[in-house]
Amino acid sequence: MARAPCVVDTSAWIEWLIGSPLGQEIGAQFPDREDCIVPTIVQLELAKWLWREADEDRCDQVIAYTQKCRVTPLDTSLAMLAAETHRQYKLATADAIVYATAKQAGVKLLTCDAHFDGLPEVLLFPKGKSGPVEVQ
After folding, report:
1. Eight-class DSSP state of 131
2. CA-to-CA distance for 135 and 121, rounded, in angstroms?
3. Sequence-ordered list of residues with C-beta below 8 angstroms from that of 12, at least 6 positions apart, any chain
């Protein structure tokens, strides 16, 4: 069964990559590569995490996988939407870029990050709880 396209936040990627119980729940919602939208800021955050927690080979493998997804670079249009998103929701810069990417694409954001709790079009898998919380 095909899953809907979505932006996958760094927190969801990490849980999915480590195969945690939460990551296994997220896996049921994780989009196919062609429907997985990856902001370049997520590639940066993943690379930083992988270099710290794994090794360069694993980092190269994961980033290569993300490059086969729908990578969305930060351009002026997205930067302006992220600035508005930051102002409206008081999100940190990286979170504002990730959320703005989902808004611009007209898709949901898949995340474990509590900073997105209560925002529209977010599929939140909160850490320490079972099942997603979704705001329409």
Report:
1. S
2. 6
3. 26, 30, 110, 111, 112, 125
**What are the φ and ψ backbone dihedral angles of 114, each rounded to 5 degrees?**
-65, -15
Cβ atoms within 10 Å, residue 43: 19
User: Sheet harboring 108-111: ordered strands across?
Assistant: 70-72, 36-39, 6-8, 108-111, 122-124, 133-135
Query: Would you state the structure tokens that stand for residue 103, as one six-digit string?
Result: 């808004």
* SS3 state at 51: helix
What is the token pair recorded at 107?
């898709």
Question: Can you give the pTM of this predicted structure?
Answer: 0.91
Measured in residues, the chain has a length of 136
More confident residue, 53 or 134: 53
Place of tokens 């370049």: 40
pLDDT of residue 49: 96
DSSP one-letter code for 58: H
Q: What does the block give as tokens for 87? A: 């102002």
Spell out a b/e string for 98-131, using b for 16 or more CB atoms within 10 Å of the CB, else e. bbbbbbbbebbbbbbbebbeebebbbbbbeeeee
